Amino acid sequence: MEYARFVNGDRMKDFFRLMSRTQFLELLEGFEPLDSEVVPLTQARGRVLAQDILAPEDLPPFSRSTMDGFAVRAKATFGASESEPSLFKVVGEVPMGSSGQDIEVGPLEAAKIWTGGALPRGADSVVMVEFTHPIDEETIEVFKPVAPGENVIAKGEDYREGDVVLEGGRVLGPSDLGALAGLGIVEVPVVKRPKVAVLSTGDELVPPDATPRPGEIRDINSTTLHLLIEECGGIPVPMGIIPDDFDSLKRACEEALREGADVVLLSGGSSVGRRDYTLDVFRGLKGCDVLAHGVSIRPGKPTILAKQGNRALFGLPGHVASAIVVFLLFVRPLVRYMSGRDLSTGLNEVRVRCGQEFPSVSGREDFVRVRLEDGPEGLSDMKWAYPVWGKSGLISPLVKAHGLLKIPRDSEGLERGEEATCLLFSYTYQ
Ligand code: AMP
Ligand code: MG
């Protein structure tokens, strides 16, 4: 019965209706970015700004000196030189942190000022202390002219009140947050980070800290997926190991959704074997549509995508390398998209030269784990890619690899020396 279903049933037919990676990515466009939330300034790094931020005031709020020296009227210094210095009367000193407004500088007057001090009334520039010479307590010589505005940061020179400081959609970095700090904006509206539930299924699986009995293996995917989620800005929600059993899996998925997961990753059981329940489980969830079962990529063919409202459910292949590749190609773009970024992997892509032949078949896109090495011409040359062959159930080839070499769908393989594109594993937090 089960066998007949395996050979002739709907599941098998569905499975062979493989879609391309591009078609799969188009399905992901059907999801929406999440709402926004407000976070403290220091927690906003790497988050996506949810709206434009306008300057509530001028930055800096007053004109400030950039040097230690004397605040003067520039015009009064014109013509001053080493041989014919101009004499200035020192009318006071601007203490740091004071507004400088209780001192007024007249035409041939100067006020002592420190770096960052507020320009006193009447002054428009600062003569560096190095270009002055004290004559007595109240008099200095100036032997170099300054231009108006010289050695001064003008009020509003960074931002004028009402300027757009940062545009919505921007991924916030340290300088951006510094600008907000300078403007007194300590709460930042950002797009929410998607919660991504991680479920591993397989009766053979035990947690990494357990000692497997004969026939059991430790769960690898929960760890790799957890870290991959964090790396692209999602919030991992570990749900543990679920037995290969329809009811347990359905309950676990329902719990993940109840907990508020925006994305559910169920690794293992995504194929069409006797104990592969993922497809049936997703079909059995209320309001859940299965959008894809099978993608023409290698590794990663038995990938399932389902949608319940704006929640995405992925059935990932259990093989450790396949789960990672499918995550990078599809889950990562969706997590990025839901958190306000574009629907791309965000991985660096580089052009490389094939160090040897890479066989493939037409009709399927291959993502071959590769090591990159310097070419014969050294640094000026493109990197050369060498395959790290290995079954997709092995983790060690991924440990050795630097990235995934893409063999296009219509290609029957790449020759040694041919150019290709490689997705690098070393991500930035984009
Ligand atoms: P499946 O997709 O359930 O047919 O699993 C394919 C292979 O991946 C089997 O050899 C599983 O034992 C293995 N596998 C499934 N899940 C995991 C996991 N979380 N960690 C390590 N290996 C796994
Ligand atoms: Mg299994």
Itemize the secondary structure elements and their pairings:
Elements: H1 2-8, H2 10-16, H3 21-28, E1 36-40, E2 53-54, E3 64-65, E4 69-72, E5 86-93, E6 109-113, E7 125-128, E8 132-136, E9 139-142, E10 152-153, E11 164-166, H4 174-182, E12 187-191, E13 195-201, E14 205-206, E15 217-218, H5 221-231, E16 235-242, H6 246-258, E17 263-267, H7 278-284, E18 288-293, E19 297-298, E20 304-308, E21 311-316, H8 320-338, E22 349-354, E23 358-359, E24 365-373, E25 384-387, H9 396-400, E26 403-407, E27 413-414, E28 419-424
Parallel strand pairs: 5-6, 13-16, 13-17, 14-15, 17-21, 19-24, 22-25
Antiparallel strand pairs: 1-12, 2-11, 3-10, 4-6, 4-7, 5-9, 8-9, 18-20, 20-21, 22-28, 23-27, 24-25, 24-26, 26-28
The structure holds adenosine monophosphate and magnesium ion.
Residues 202, 244, 268-269, 318 line the site of magnesium ion (MG).
Describe the largest sheet.
Answer: 6 strands, mixed
Q: Taking Cα atoms only, what radius of gyration do you get, to the nearest Å?
A: 32 Å
Average of per-residue pLDDT values: 94
User: Per the principal axes of the C-alpha atoms, what is the gross shape?
Assistant: elongated
What is the name of the CATH architecture of the largest domain?
Answer: 3-Layer(aba) Sandwich
List each distinct ligand once: adenosine monophosphate, magnesium ion
What proportion of the residues form beta strands (DSSP E)? 25-35%
Ends apart, CA distance between termini:
49 Å
Order of neighbouring strands in the sheet with most strands:
7-4-6-5-9-8
- pLDDT under 50 segments (min length 5)? 1-8
CATH homolog superfamily of the largest domain: MoaB/Mog-like domain
Number of domains: 4
Number of helices: 9
